[in-house]
Design a protein that fits this description.
The complex is a heterodimer of chains A (about 290) and B (about 280). Chain A is mostly helical and about 290 residues long. Helices cover about 70% and strands about 0% of the residues of chain A. Chain A is built from 13 helices and no strands. In chain A, α3 runs parallel beside α7. Chain A is globular, with a radius of gyration of 24 Å. By secondary structure, chain B is mainly alpha-helical. Chain B folds into two domains: about 50 residues, no CATH class; about 170 residues, MetI-like (MetI-like fold, Orthogonal Bundle). Chain B starts with 7 loop residues before the first helix and ends with a helix. Classes of the chains: A mainly alpha (about 290), B mainly alpha (about 280). At the A-B interface, α1, α3, α4, α5 and α6 of A face α1, α4, α5, α6 and α7 of B.
Chain lengths: ~290, ~280
Amino acid sequence: MKLLLSKNFIAWYFIMPALAIHLLVVATPSILSLALCLTDWNGFGKINYIGFENFYELFDDRVFKKAVKHNIIWTIIFLTVPISIALTCAYLLTGIKKFQLIYRLLFFFPYMLASIISCQIWKYMFHPLHGIGAWLSSKGLDWISASPFTLKETSLYAVAMVDGWHFWGFLVVVYITGMYQVDNSLYEAADIEGATKFQKFRFITLPMIRPIFIFTLMIIIIWSIPTFDYIYILTQGGPAYSSEVLATHLYSQAFDRFNVGYSSAIGTLMFVYVIIIVSIFGILQKLGWDI
Amino acid sequence: MIVAKYRKSELISNYTILTFFALFAFLPILLLIMNSIKPQEEFGINALGFPSDIRWLNFYDAWILGNYARIFLNSLILVAGTLIICLFCSGLAAFSLARLKPKGSSIFLIYLLVGISIPAQMFILPLFLMWKELNLMNTHLGLIIIYSGLNAPFATFLIRSYMVQLPEELFDAAKIDGANTLQLFIKIAIPISWPVFLTTGLVVGLAVWNEFLFALTFMQDEASKPIATILFAFQSRFENNWGLVSASAVMMAAPVAIMFMFFQKKFIAGLTSGASKG
């Protein structure tokens, strides 16, 4: 009794509710998933242990390979386009005084919108009868005559554009916070040396915001793998799997076909990937990289 | 901080670039707002312009056809329920981690860090099966528990980072008066830490209001669905009635925009809190 009321135990009682709810919602089903990925269960009937059969099957699965490829493309797009636009805008913003706050709020606002709303906006923007395509063709330019969401060649990029539109303002705000922490005397010294604006950006701003910059790289690499909402809402992975990613493939395997074992195998691979990325960044940090 | 003194010509090009991107960010939203008050006949002839005839009735029609009195209540129940459970549990845990620092609590911190990075797809199907067994499918409580669990690590980290900075003297006087640990939490920690509870509440509330994947999976009963998934169904049901669909989207975004106007600093600080700590 005394032990149960000791200071240490009381402190743990405070942690219990949060721990219990997280164990129930995240940890328990995750462990179940780790176990189920070694079975051929379909949600009903007997559960048979089949070893790594699901994984062998995955590596033969044409759609799975496409999905992996699309996730890689997705990651590369997000590591380049939104980051370079956001760095440019954040750097330009630190140089102006008038309207700075307004620009920041305008950039950031799309990040607050629900995925379903962003998708609806852009579905209309690219609608063949109403959107920019129709407007261009009324001017004699037939650049976007069909919605890019419905074309095999462009569906993935069009969806990435919508998600990027929603996301990049977040990066601007993150970078500008970092840029305001840079010591002004560094810029003054550079001014005396006669450095150009680009040199100042390259040799002062970028190195000084490196921890934040690396952090944004890491979250983009991690977030690009479970990306789901925009693709599911806009294209459902189609047409002809041209925008299928791991998360949508897993979702249809899980909830349309009820291949519990198979979809658990995909989920497990995604989890392993995230753990590897987080460990790489952790190890680099331990090795003394300033990240 | 002023990075550089710009010449006038440079300032003009800076403003031009920034304005271009500001328009890219905001024009699509403006178009949505215009469409929400556009009569259906105008979508054929005046698809991208300002409506010549403003039709506020779009909102009324969408509200009635979508049964939104019920649907918005569902979303509100989910947000309120999650805020109560998640903030209470996370506040308790954060207080313990920041002030009581029990033996072994660093393991719990590492557990939360791993927990925050597990992709939802890893556990959504087993969770679905568990919720079926527990009869929590299609219930608000079931979804509230899920949202509370999903957001607990973030909320705990954010509240903890605030409570760590509180000076010990604040608690000393109450301890001398014989307050027990729970009283320290309720009477001292919570009242002083209200700013962080507000920030956390705004971020978690926004996440729940906008959430799609779990709402799609765990709430299949039409009458209990939140606005995010109703809008998804609405879009295919009234595919070409852009006025109705846009009015619905504006109604879903309006509370977010209003809250953002009042609490922009808190929203931005909360949503970028992971990054600024590096």
